[in-house]
Amino acid sequence: PKSKRNKVITLTKTKKQPKEKKDTLIEEIRTSCEKFSRLYLVSIENERNTFMQTVRQKLRPSRLICAKNKVMQLALGTTPSTECQDGVHQIANRI
User: If you compute the radius of gyration of the chain from its CA atoms, what whole number of angstroms results?
Assistant: First the structure.
C-alpha cells in the first residue's frame, strides 16, 4: 500500500481571504497608527510562535501587526494624498 504521509496537497483549493477581513485589518492598522506615536518596520525571518509571544510581551502596551505587504502599504498609504498620517508614505514605500 502507498504511504499516506507523502501525499501532495494542491494549493489551488485554498480559499482567498474575504474582502471584509482585509478591510477590517486596514482599518485596524490606521487606528493603531493614530493611537501610537512611533512606527517601526521590522523584518522577521523565523516566525516561531514562542518567539513572537515573547516579543509581544516585551512590547506590551504597543501593537505588533503582521500582515501582507500590499495590505500594509494600502493601509498606510503610498502617496502623500492617501497616507493616514504625515510622512507615513515614506515607510510604506520601504515595505
Answer: 18
Distance spanning both ends of the chain, measured CA to CA = 48
What local confidence, expressed as pLDDT, does residue 93 receive?
84
Pick left, alpha or beta for residue 87 (phi over 0 → left; psi -120 to 50 → alpha; otherwise beta).
left
State the Cα torsion 84-88-94-95 to the nearest 10°.
-40
In whole angstroms, give the CA distance from residue 84 to residue 94: 16
Return the number of other C-beta atoms located less than 10 Å from residue 33's C-beta: 19
What cell was used for 43? 523584518
pTM to 2 decimals? 0.67
